[in-house]
Amino acid sequence: MKIALLSLVFNILLVVPSLAQSSDAALRRATQADNAARLEAGGKLPVMPAEEHLSRAETYMANRLFPQAREHWAIVLATYPEHAGTPKALFGTARSFMWEREYLKAVEWFDRLLKDHSMSKEGRDGLSFKGASYVRAGKNLEAARTYEQYTVMFPTGERIESAYLNIIDAYREAGEYAKAAEWVEKAVREFPGKTTEVNALQGLVRMEIYRGRWNEAATAADRMLAVRTFAGSMTSADEARFLKAYALEKAGKATEASAIFSSIPQTYTSYFGGLAAERNLSSPVRKTGAVSPQMYSQYPTPFRAQVLKHSIKQRIDPLFVLAIMKQESSFRPNAKSPAGARGLIQLVFDTAIKYKDEAGYPRLQPDDLYDPETNVAIGSIYIRKIKDEFGGLYEAVAASYNAGEDNAARWLNRTKPRDPGLFAAEVGFAETKNYVFKVMNNYRVYRELYDEKLNRK
């Protein structure tokens, strides 16, 4: 529901740019007001009504200006400790450290939140995010115990189903395979016929593939397919078939694997269908450009000069840049997401400032990211950087672009062997997984329609 709502808001921002601009205007107002207040108070922010501090903190947080947001929350916590906004200030502070990848510092703040506000909405969410912080810090056993605490304290909580799935993956990453399998069965019993059942079984398939237990992986995939409840889940029947065929292929059962690969629909909208076609050489791969020539209008090459200039400079595929751009902004330079990402390639400011000097923009400001030349220049550096980090695996680049480098690195570490389809199956966020599919399907079509100079084939 939350992901659907964010998608709706993002689509509204794309269609009605004035809404994105109003967010930028709020940031400018907050910045100007703070600057003026500092001048009057000798450099420090003065105490204002709690509501004003909370409002400005929200504005900064929405634009990923985390230190500025924390400054306002700190005043609320110090001056108005009994205010109703205290849980929000504690939660926001903790989340801001998560965004900055200061995970153990985030845990400290989540603990402060949980100490006095565990039964609030922020407390429930905070306990879940505390587990996520431990995962990202590589403390998987601590993460598993935190999520287990969630299942005890909030058995009907908003994040109960994801708690079970996170426990499975946390124990698996800790090498506690028996415990992970135990929680798979607990999830199957607790959520029969629901999406969590099939998600848990998919976690079992992934674990067995990682361990090289090919026959057990194929059997677990059969359990997935028997559930028949994929709508709204993290997986699909196509994915289950692909994973089963992959396991059978590794088990030396090539004929059975080929038959299953052939059963996956080979359309330009099916990520696993495209992969299956590439693996199953006995089956011809459909060329989407030949099947649907009108796709040239659906997959255009706008901002061609900027894309070619900076992709060549950074040694990245311009077709992949277009695939990202199409998914991120639908080629709208003024697009802005609810998370504060701006422009054609949807850069967040805290990422953009890391590469501003290399790109030649030492005085970069948030609004500069709406300029196509600036956005593509910085975005291309970022794409090149994460492409190098992940050994050229474009699925990992797309996942990193959407969910962050640390998450993509964790999913890649869980991928054994290093196969694109196995990596995609390991992606742990529904939004990111869907994003990877869409970007890679875009990339597949662009490669069939254009050459490396963006000329039509």
What layout of secondary structure does this protein have?
Blueprint: H1 2-15, H2 17-40, H3 50-62, H4 66-79, H5 86-99, H6 103-117, H7 121-136, H8 140-153, H9 160-173, H10 177-190, H11 195-210, H12 214-227, H13 237-250, H14 254-263, H15 271-279, H16 288-291, H17 295-298, H18 304-314, H19 318-329, H20 349-359, H21 372-389, H22 394-403, H23 405-413, H24 420-426, H25 430-449
Helix pairs in contact: 1-2, 3-4, 4-5, 5-6, 5-7, 6-7, 7-8, 8-9, 9-10, 9-11, 10-11, 11-12, 11-13, 12-13, 13-14, 18-21, 19-25, 20-21, 22-23, 22-25
Short account of what is shown:
This protein is mainly alpha-helical and 457 residues long. It is built from 25 helices and no strands. Among the domains are: 1-37, no CATH class; 47-137, Tetratricopeptide repeat domain (Serine Threonine Protein Phosphatase 5, Tetratricopeptide repeat); 298-449, Lysozyme.
The whole-number mean of residue pLDDT values reads 91
**Share of residues in strands:** under 5%
Radius of gyration: 23 Å
- The percent range for helix content is over 70%
Q: What about the largest sheet? A: none
- CATH class (first level) name of the domain at 298-449: Mainly Alpha
User: Which architecture of the domain at 298-449 does the CATH hierarchy give at level 2?
Assistant: Orthogonal Bundle
Provide the CATH topology of the domain at 298-449.
Answer: Lysozyme
> SSE order in H/E notation?
HHHHHHHHHHHHHHHHHHHHHHHHH
The rough form would be described as flat
- Total number of β-strand segments? 0
Number of H/I helices? 25
Secondary-structure content class: mainly alpha
Low-confidence stretches: 1-21, 282-286
Ends distance: 41 Å
